[in-house]
Specification:
This protein is α/β, with parallel strands linked by helices and 419 residues long. It is built from 7 helices and 24 strands. Helix 1 packs parallel to helix 6.
Amino acid sequence: MSRIVILGGGTAGTIMANRLRRRYAQEVTAGSTSITVVDEDPRHIYQPGLLFVPFGIYRPDDIVRPRGMQLHDEVTYKAGAIEQLVPDDHAVLLKDGTRLPYDVLIIATGTRIAPEETEGLVGREWQHAVFDFYTMEGATALARKLSTWRGGKLVVNVVEMPIKCPVAPLEFAFLADWYFTMRKMRDVVDITYATPLDGAFTRPVASQHIGHLLAKKQIGLVPEFNAGRVDNERKVLESWDGREIPFDLLVTIPLHQGAAYLKATPELVDDNLFVKTNPNTLQSTVAPDIFAIGDATNLPTSKAGSVAHFESEVLDANIAHFLAGEALDPGFDGHANCFVETGFDQALLLDFNYETEPLPGHYPLPIGPMTLLGESRLNHMGKMAFKWIYWNLLLPGHEIPGIPTRMSMRGKHVPASVA
């Protein structure tokens, strides 16, 4: 009997449960292998869709489905809150007293925002003049605010890296430019993008391209701004080095942390509660029967759904290797790709991994049809089509035709400054 327990039924957890059910179909039906997913939230939210809720492009109902419905019938879904892990006993304790023993454990509980960690962020102006859009509650409150806002200083601020979907704050700034232009009030909205990075993005070539786009759209860029405090009285965002940015509307991307139950096993996680994970095998660096995937890991790649998808193929095989007593496949290369919505039915596309930064060119073939680091309507169509792909291919654990797990250099142009 092999007992596979997956903590978290979001993108990564659901993909893994469905892939492993397919791999062990006969054993699961026969009862010799069990797959159990634990998640206390009965809603499965299409998280890339939260970006569009504040602008009225999606309604909340457009991006939510029942969590259990996304799992195969032979996967056991347990709706419960996790109390703590007991690695020495190879078990998970739930808050209702349930003890779940495992032969292999997959941590896929993602990341959560922690606005309370920044002084003043959840003060008097929280959800009045200060909003997030990384939660359904925040995105819907921000939608109500934007629909009646009369203009002023709009500041989009990333408090600290890493965050989920690192391009989402940029996309919010670009969509705000589009939204207020369509409402014929762009001239009374001053948009500022403040980031702790030294440029618009984490990697230099993409940072240069996106920086030019911000300037073209008259969106101010404030780099190396490490937010330390929000002064609710003066409506000012303050950095640790004493700089100030006044705002009428602050859209914050708060500090991100791993799941709270991981505090009880500090040996497994880093300071932000992300699981210490082998970057190529996805095995915990501390406990060999524990693996991690998606946003829950401490890996130096994007916390994005595409990464969870690419990781899942390697992890699916490695769970089988582990249970069979075989050597693991060090096959994950940090592959990430993501569309960057830039407004006016245009988008960029990024494709990169641990070693190769986002480069210009074409994707997935040398002739395209997608354009890397260049705006196109086709990229925008790909971004909007991804919602269908997510529900119908990604979550069931199917391959996406033409998109390899490992990053390819096909179609990429290496600038002289990088070569």
